[in-house]
C-alpha cells in the first residue's frame, strides 16, 4: 500500500523540507551512543526531533501494512530498534524520497516478519 505524505498539511511534522543536517546530527548521536561517548546537546536535540518527526510516519507505515492496532506499539518498537541499528550507516543523497522509501522498507520488513 502506498502512503502519501501531504506537504500542504501544516499540522503534519513532515510538512517542512527534508533536513539532511538533522539526519547527519542524528547519525552522529547514534554513533556516539554506540561507542559509549557523550553526544553533544545539538545531537541530543537532533535525536529528539528526529524521533518526534518520524515516529508518526512509521506508525502510519505499519498501520498501512496491516499491523493490528493491539500490536502496533510492539511492532513500532522493533522498527525503531532496527532503525537505530541501521541509521548510522545510511548514506543520504539528499533526496527525501529515498529516505522515506528506506524507512518504509524497514517498517514493511518488520511488519512482514511479525505478521506476514
Concise synopsis of the structure shown:
The protein is an all-alpha fold and 116 residues long. The chain is built from 4 helices and no strands.
Question: What is the C-level CATH assignment?
Answer: Mainly Alpha
| Overall structural domain count | 1
Main sheet summary: none
Q: Can you say what the CATH homologous superfamily is?
A: RNA polymerase sigma factor, region 2, helix turn helix motif
Q: What is the name of the CATH topology? A: Rna Polymerase Sigma Factor, Chain: A
Q: What are the segments in which pLDDT stays under 50 over at least 5 consecutive residues?
A: 1-16
| Helix-strand topology string | HHHH
The percent range for helix content is 55-70%
- The tally of strands reads 0
Structural class: mainly alpha
Beta-strand percentage range: under 5%
Cα distance, first to last residue? 14 Å
Mean pLDDT: 86
What is the overall silhouette?
globular
What does this structure look like?
The chain has a single domain, classed as Orthogonal Bundle (Rna Polymerase Sigma Factor, Chain: A). The chain is built from four helices and no strands. The radius of gyration is 14 Å and the shape is globular. The chain is mainly alpha-helical.
List the topology elements:
Blueprint: H1 20-34, H2 41-64, H3 69-86, H4 96-115
Amino acid at each position: 500500500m502506498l502512503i502519501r505524505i501531504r506537504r500542504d498539511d501544516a499540522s503534519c511534522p513532515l510538512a517542512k523540507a527534508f533536513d539532511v543536517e538533522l539526519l547527519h546530527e542524528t547519525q552522529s548521536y547514534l554513533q556516539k551512543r554506540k561507542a559509549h561517548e557523550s553526544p553533544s546537546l545539538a545531537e541530543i536535540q537532533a535525536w529528539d526531533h528526529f524521533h518526534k518527526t518520524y515516529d508518526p510516519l512509521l506508525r502510519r507505515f505499519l498501520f498501512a501494512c496491516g499491523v493490528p492496532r493491539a500490536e502496533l506499539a510492539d511492532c513500532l518498537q522493533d522498527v525503531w530498534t532496527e532503525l537505530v541499528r541501521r541509521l548510522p550507516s545510511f548514506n543520504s543523497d539528499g533526496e527525501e524520497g529515498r529516505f522515506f522509501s528506506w524507512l518504509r522498507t524497514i517498517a514493511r520488513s518488520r511488519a512482514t516478519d511479525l505478521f506476514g
